[in-house]
Amino acid sequence: MHTDTDRCVRAVQAKDARFDGWFFTAVLTTGIYCRPSCPVVPPKPENMRFHPSAAAAQQAGFRACKRCRPDASPGSPEWNERADLVARAMRLIADGLVDREGVPGLAERLGYSTRHIERMLLAEVGAGPLALARAQRAQTARLLIETSALPMGEIAFAAGFSSIRTFNDTVREVFALAPGELRARANRASPAGPDGRPTATTGTIALRLPYRAPLCPDNLFGHLAATAVPGVEEWRDGAYRRTLRLPYGQGVVALSPRPDHIGCQLALTDLRDLTIAISRCRRLLDLDADPVAVDDLLRADPLLAPLIDKAPGRRVPRTVDAAEFAVRAVIGQQVSTAAARTHAGRLVLAHGEPVDDPAGGLTHLFPGPERLAGLGPEQLAMPRTRRTTLTTLAAALAAGEIALGAGSDWEQARARLAELPGIGPWTVEVIAMRALGDPDAFPASDLGLRRAAQESGLPSTPAALIRRAADWRPWRAYAVQYLWATDDHPINHLPAG
């Protein structure tokens, strides 16, 4: 949208927070860049320049505004809505792949040359993969500077910088303050600072995850809590808590809904995982969605409109581990939510990797596909055909024959899943919706969806429902959330306590 100058100017003049993350405003007279909702007096239109990413603004020589903290704005919803090369690259960069494997690793994962990927990103995002990863490192450094008492050398290492000098130079260039000045400024600020301002507690990194309003937390947290696997997930003291398997170590996160943000507390065994953990938590809660665009399109259907007006801003609950969710989808085939939790809990207790939860309650990581692929029939207490499906899926995931991660090709993943014995259209679409993150995934044969459709006056047979849902594209996964919410099931209610 950054190429639509008139629309961008109107958004800046209105201080419209809905466009935060969609584009960034660079001000020629001050040399800074801001989010559209920056509270300062808007500059004159002739002094505005618009960029599609914070990295592009930084690469053009602009510094981040100290007032509105544009680097902490919600991410562009485009990268989670699309399945093309640029969107897949952006999701992988957000997941820290460039920091871990470099641009060649990104190119290998996507199956294109480094030159082609750089050209595509420059054309659409205004910055190459290295600049995008650098902007992400700068934001991680700022979080650690402001939320911890770690020495600056440790912060530089944790944020992914190759040297203290590069760390110092980057922080000064991006934020117009030295690292020590950033920390002093944060110490003077109130813990209840502006959107995105983190705070610290002993043994954790605590921060605010911003989102675009409105957000309905009921089905989002209700679904995660109702399906929580014992030992891996729990709902406690108003927060959804779970263990995390991360590239450099383990983690435990607590996520709690607040009126204008999501409270996030992270305990990590290796601070290099901070950026990756934040990215995965945002993806889990679908925080970079554009609820206004989604709801406006779905509201055009007169049978959906009352459901949307009753509770706008529903998100699609997703996952922090795509392989884990795929296995859990197989476990949950044709059984109740409670039975699926029980089966998964037994699997975790027998084969999961132990973790240390600072608050107690969580005990294991969900077993990875490599561990599950080697299990014998006697180690899985479930029907024979489902055992075969689970171990076959785990083997395919472990061998890399099916890719479900952040940069995966959605249609290719669907096709390869469908080739496995025991995985039908329902399982494929549920995995596409929750693990792949496809906003248009549509499990038309789901019994709960069909029942809700019938009660709402919509067709209830899968074929007829698919035809009717054509008008809901590309947001059919969100329509599913609104229809599921008509049922009085625990997944649709924010847990008490």
What distinguishing features does this structure have?
4-stranded mixed β-sheet; single chain; 12 strands; globular; 6-stranded antiparallel β-sheet; alpha+beta; 497 residues; 23 helices
Quick structural summary:
By secondary structure, this protein is α+β, with helices and mostly antiparallel strands. The chain has 23 helices and 12 strands.
Describe the structure.
The chain is 46% helix and 10% strand. The chain is built from 23 helices and 12 strands. The strands form 3 sheets. Strands 5-6-10-9-8-7 form a 6-stranded antiparallel β-sheet, covered by helices on one side. A 4-stranded mixed β-sheet has the order 3-1-2-4. Strands 11-12 form a two-stranded antiparallel sheet. The longest helix has 19 residues, at 129-147. It is globular and about 65 Å long. Mean pLDDT is 92; it is low at 192-202.
